[in-house]
Design goal:
Alpha-Beta Plaits, 2 domains, 12 helices
Length: about 250
């Protein structure tokens, strides 16, 4: 079946999500995250794009950017190829790191741009990593509060909150922290495939086959199943089908 064509943005602005294959980490630690940001800034000067926001999570990445000389697909290819080579060399692995092609959605107006930024900035709060947006280190939120551009092109977004410099910063902070049920493209909304789920179970268990998985000690088995269940892109039914453990067992964990 042919791939569905990527929806083009008339403004050139996109919300992009990159995630790891079988939900494995793609940004395992601070060094990985800093390297990704270095590459984001490096290619900004060579591909002539503007970055309006980012959120770096261990197993996926949100970017909000406007394409320039190169298309968004070419931009992500440049960054991805370089980062995967660096990551594989550092972590002693080879092969693919990212799941298939990246996901994207067009951003056609300032209001939706604001909404997408709020959606990604609030994600660490929604899933319980932090209690406030400002406490998550690996997002571009602080760049707007302190007006420190760096890799972020802050003027367009801040201007959408008003002309007065002091007022727009207050308005930005208030909006980004307001309780919201924003719906935008999210990494956790795509259901994991059975194949990727099986690979994830083996990797977390440290075993090589389904029969070995069934032989795990109860404590280790339950820990692995709880971690997979918490991923939110699968179901107890799918975990039971792929793992061979009963759905009632998984539901109780």
């Amino acid at each position: 079946m042919a791939r569905k064509a990527r929806v083009k943005s008339s403004t050139g602005i996109y919300h992009i999500i990159i995630r790891g294959i079988d939900m494995q980490p793609v940004l395992a630690d601070a060094d990985d995250k800093n390297e990704f940001l270095n590459l984001l800034e490096y290619y900004k000067g060579r591909c002539d794009y503007e970055v309006y926001g980012y959120l770096l999570m261990d197993d996926h990445i949100h970017l909000v950017l406007k394409e320039g000389q190169k298309t968004v697909s070419n931009i992500m290819k440049c960054i991805g190829v370089k980062y995967v080579a660096w990551y594989n060399a550092r972590h002693g692995r080879d092969g693919r790191l990212f799941h298939d092609r990246f996901k994207s959605e067009p951003i056609e107006d300032e209001r939706y741009l604001q909404k997408v930024l709020r959606c990604i900035y609030q994600e660490p709060v929604r899933i319980g990593l932090v209690t406030e947006v400002s406490k998550y280190k690996w997002s571009s939120y602080q760049a707007y509060l302190h007006e420190t551009a760096g890799v972020i092109h802050i003027d367009k977004v801040l201007a959408s909150f008003g002309k007065d410099a002091a007022h727009r910063k207050i308005a930005f902070r208030k909006y980004m922290n307001a309780p919201a049920n924003d719906v935008c493209l999210e990494a956790c909304r795509e259901k994991i495939t059975d194949e990727d789920l099986f690979s994830l179970l083996l990797r977390l268990s440290g075993v090589k086959s389904g029969s070995d998985l069934k032989k795990l000690a109860k404590g280790q088995r339950d820990e692995v199943l709880r971690e997979v269940k918490a991923k939110q892109s699968t179901s107890t039914w799918q975990i039971a089908k792929v793992s061979g453990f009963s759905q009632s067992l998984i539901s109780r964990l």
